[in-house]
């Protein structure tokens, strides 16, 4: 016997589609709708943490990418924008804002005199270290209601789906 679970917002949508279009198998809408809803709700919680540090999600992403690259916390702009999956024009604008805030600086590239590297400043390093501590704690809090086995199952399913969507599955 299956356990009756309380309905969620997506169940109502599926119920409506089943009533209006019983000829369609709308079961994929359940998983995809829930993924999208979870992503939106999680983003709000992530943004709330970033706001505590007067930063946006994209600022966190750039600073965190530089921080996790290791000392001297310096990358080429092309490496940054390919890692973050944004255009070079978007990256240029974002780097200008972070530089104006004193969180990054552009330094000469000893391997290519035509280009500059992007490096965390001491101020940027201090900010991202504090922000990433709070961010990781926030992520723990988000997933805390799931038991360890559920978290592992979720991670494994999402890893498989991601690989399939990225064409590596």
Task: Offer a quick outline of the entry.
The protein has 169 residues and is mainly α.
Counted by DSSP, the helix tally is 7
Regions with little confidence, pLDDT below 50 for 5+ residues: none
Shape: elongated
Q: Helix and strand string, N-terminal first? A: HHHEHHEEHH
Report the helical percentage: 55-70%
Describe this structure in words.
The protein is mainly α. Helix content is 65%, strand content 7%. It is built from seven helices and three strands; from the N terminus they run αααβααββαα. The protein has a three-stranded antiparallel β-sheet. A hairpin with a 7-residue loop joins strand 2 and strand 3. The two termini are 34 Å apart. The model has no long low-confidence stretch (mean pLDDT 93).
Feature tags:
mainly alpha; 3-stranded antiparallel beta sheet; 3 strands; 169 residues; 7% strand; 7 helices; single chain
Tell me the layout of helices and strands.
Layout: H1 9-20, H2 27-52, H3 57-68, E1 74-75, H4 77-83, H5 88-100, E2 104-108, E3 116-120, H6 122-143, H7 148-165
Antiparallel strand pairs: 1-3, 2-3
Helix pairs in contact: 2-6, 3-6, 4-5
